[in-house]
Amino acid sequence: MRLTNKVAFVTGGGQGIGRLTALTFAREGAKVVVADINMSAAQAVADEIIQADGQARAVFLDAARSESVEVAMRTASEWGGGIDILVNNAGITRDARMQKMTEDQWDAVLGVNLKGVWLCSKYAAPYMIARGGGAILNAASVVALYGNFGQSNYVAAKAGVIGMTKTWARELGPSGIRVNAVAPGFIQTDMIATVPDKVIESMKERTPLRRIGYAEDIANAYLFLASDEASFITGIVLSVDGGLIF
Ligand code: NAI
Predict the structure, then answer these.
(1) Nearest 10 degrees: Cα torsion 182, 154, 147, 13
(2) Single pTM value for the model
(3) Residue 153 contacts residue 106 (beta carbons within 8 Å)
(4) Residue 20 is part of a domain; what is its CATH number?
(5) Candidates 39, 191, 218: which one to mutate for ligand 1, based on the most atoms within 8 Å of Cβ?
(6) What is the largest CA-CA distance in the chain?
(7) Which ligand 1 atom sits closest to the C-alpha of 42?
(8) Could you give the angle at the alpha carbon of 114 between the alpha carbons of 91 and 136, nearest 5°?
(9) pLDDT-derived band at 1, boundaries 50, 70, 90
C-alpha cells in the first residue's frame, strides 16, 4: 500500500474524479477526508470506503468560503491526527461566450476553482508543515494550456491554478511540501454530461489514444504524485489526456 498512515483531504470528493480519488487513496491505506459542498454525496463516499474496511470521514466544505475551509481543515486534522495530502479537486463550470458571460458566472467559477484552491492550500499548509511535509495536488485542465470556446472564466481559473502550483512549489518546497498539478483532458463525469456527442466524438478523433478519459485515469495520476514514488517531483503540470496536447 502506497499511502499507509497518510491523511488525505479530497475536495469535491462526493462524485466524479474526487470520488474515485478518495476510493483509490483509501484502498492504498490513507485515512481519507471526503470534503464536499454536497454533504450527502460526501457521506455516501465515506460510507462506501468504510464498508470496504477503509478509513474515511465526510466533512462539509464550501471551498470558496474561508470560514468553511478553516473549520473543515481543523475537523479533518483533529480526526486524522494531521493532514499530509490535499487534493484540490472541487470545481464547477458556468459556460458562456465572453460577451454573454455574466459577472455572477465569472465570480462563481473563479470563487471555487481559483480562490478555493488557494484557501484550501492556505489552511492545510500549516498542518503539513507541523508534520514536516506533505503534498498538494491541484486540478488544472488541458483547456488552461490551449483555451476553450465559452470558458473564459474556467480557463482563467485553471491557468491561475497552474501559476499558483509553480509559485507554491517554490514557497513550500523548503518545508518539505510538494505542489503539483494534473491537467485532465476530457474525462467521463457529470461535468461533461452536457457536452454534445459530436464534440466528444471529435475529441476522440483528435486524441492519439482515441478515447476520452475515466476518473480512474486521473485518480491514478494523483496517487502517483501523492506517493513517496514522486518524492523528488514538485512544480509540474502532468497532462493526463491521451496525448491530446503535447
Ligand atoms: P464533478 O462536477 O463531477 O464533481 C465536482 C465535485 O465538486 C462535486 O461533488 C461538487 O459537489 C463539488 N463542489 C462543487 N462546488 C464546491 C465547493 N464550493 N466546495 C466544495 N465542493 C464543491 O466534476 P469532475 O468532472 O469530477 O471534475 C473534478 C475536477 O477536475 C474539477 O476541478 C474539474 O474542473 C477538473 N477537470 C475535469 C475534467 C472533466 O473532463 N471532467 C477535465 C479537466 C479538469
Answers:
(1) 30
(2) 0.98
(3) yes
(4) 3.40.50.720
(5) 191
(6) 51
(7) 9
(8) 80
(9) very high
Q: For the chain, give the mean pLDDT.
A: 97
Q: Please, are residues 123 and 136 in contact by the beta-carbon 8 Å criterion?
A: no
Does a structural domain hold residue 1?
A: no
The residues assigned a catalytic role are 154
The pairing of beta strand 31-36 with beta strand 7-11: parallel
Task: Give pairs for 97-103: CB < 8 Å, separation 24+.
Answer: 97/149, 97/150, 98/152, 101/152, 101/153
Residue nearest to atom 6 of ligand 1 (CA): 12
**Starting at the edge strand that comes first in sequence, how are the strands of the sheet with 55-60 ordered?**
55-60, 31-36, 7-11, 85-88, 134-139, 177-184, 237-240
Q: From ligand 1's centre to the CA of 50, what distance in Å?
A: 23
| Model pLDDT, residue 76 | 98
Nine-digit cell string for 116: 478555493
Task: Please report whether residue 73 resides in a domain.
Answer: yes
Our count of domains for the chain comes to 1
Q: What is the extent of the structural domain holding 104?
A: 7-240
246 in a structural domain: no
Nearest to 3 by CA among 232, 227, 229: 227
Is residue 245 assigned to a domain? Answer: no
Say how far apart CA 11 and CA 28 lie, in whole Å: 18
pLDDT tens per residue, range 166-224: 999 999 999 999 999 999 999 999 988 888 999 999 999 999 999 999 999 999 999 99
